[in-house]
Request: fold
Amino acid sequence: MGKNFRFIAIAGIILFIALSGCAQQTQQPPQSGNNDGTQTGNGETGAKIIEVTIKDFAYSPSQLAVNAGDTVKWTNLDSAPHTVTSDSGSELDSDQLNKGQSFSHTFAVAGTYDYHCAVHPSMKASVTVQ
Ligand SMILES: [Cu+2]
Reply:
């Protein structure tokens, strides 16, 4: 009788510890990190970063279609300085980009955004946001 009671008590304590251990584990978030909303690509929102290179006095690709919420990143590979400047309005208004420098912009509103280089106005391109 006394032995049985002790066994049941110990078994109960072990069971209690095991259960509370499990409960603690399930309280942890399923994923660590990536919860700050700054994920780049393959996140739940599907927002992407699309790269445009500036080389030989041209934007490549010069015609670009993106989704609202996407970010476009221009990188100047030329020795000459370039900018990313809206033809009208102020959606795109980069500083002068020297070789190796980048400019990023996130498009929130659908539309066609024509832009040019303020240093070389013959350099033209556009981003269409859908
Ligand atoms: Cu330029």
About this structure: Confidence is low (pLDDT under 50) at residues 12-19, 21-43. Strands lie at 49-55, 58-60, 63-66, 71-76, 85-86, 102-106, 111-116, 124-129. Residues 2-27 form the longest helix (26 residues). The pocket of copper (II) ion is lined by residues 82, 117, 119-120, 123 (CB under 6 Å).
